[in-house]
Amino acid sequence: MNDLANKCEFLAAQMADHEANWSLGTFGAIAEFMRDADEPVALSNGDARVAAVTARGGIRIEPREHMRLFASESTTRESWSHRVSLCLPQAGCAMNGRTVLTALGPDIQALREEDRQATLFDLGLGALQVDVCIRVADPKVTAELLSHAGRPLFEPGNPAMSVILASSPHRVFASRLGRIEVFQPIPPPTGQSPEGPHTHVLPKLLQHRRTHSATEPVPVGWIPCAHLYPPHPVTDGSGHARAFDLGRHEAFQEMLRRFGDPELVSLKQRVVAAVAAGGDPSTVPVIDNRFARTNIRVVLRQLNAADEALPALAAWMAAHERPDRIESDDEPHRHD
How many CA atoms lie within 13 A of 211 on its CB side? Predict the structure, then answer.
């Protein structure tokens, strides 16, 4: 089995797991896909693509030969997060980069056949690795948006956004590695995102022109074009706490060994061994690297969550959880 086939097999297995969540977008504009355990879903796997579609939304991932899977962990305020970034080389990740509202015609790539005659509009957010679009089936709404095409979406006096919010069309986020579609209504400005697939578009964050959060350790020269969030050992898909699950923990540690940064994986192993042996925190020097410091804090939080009887753990936690060593590492895609 070649490398692409191995990646497809891995992604297909994750797609079949209802506890795995997905996202696709950029810093400030992101679509998320998740589903419930008992939710009807159409899964497909073939022709070098994997997909899942429910009544609330859908996702299709199309792996490429030069795609890199990169597993990593970060701290959150009280716990940790993990993900597998689906990356492309910076030179090959760019989408269309449109900066004005643009009608693209029928969405012939839609996940569901019944949506392929609806009109796709690029919102013109100018992101590098994603085209942020809406799909409109109502002829009246289509005509009204066509009258505003060619203008920046957030231009003063542009009524296009009001039309979009009022009509709540499907949202379609597309990258070189696939797309996520959200069928659920757009929540009101004062409302929270609905359970299940949803999107965020945050103009203030988009102004930073970042491709991903500064807390995500992506290899130099690579751009994340989608993300997979495998089942987490201490939180469910909605972020609610649950008892530590050793199986979920070990499953992601295997992904780290397979797809992660070898140096950070080695550092993590050294910390685990030192704590288990009752060693002093000084036995593993603190490296002057943000991601290395974060890596140490993650492994200590994991050992603490596992509730193992490790007498040395308290001293390690005291040494590495000091306020002067804690960066703001919360996941950018988790806010509404």
Answer: 25
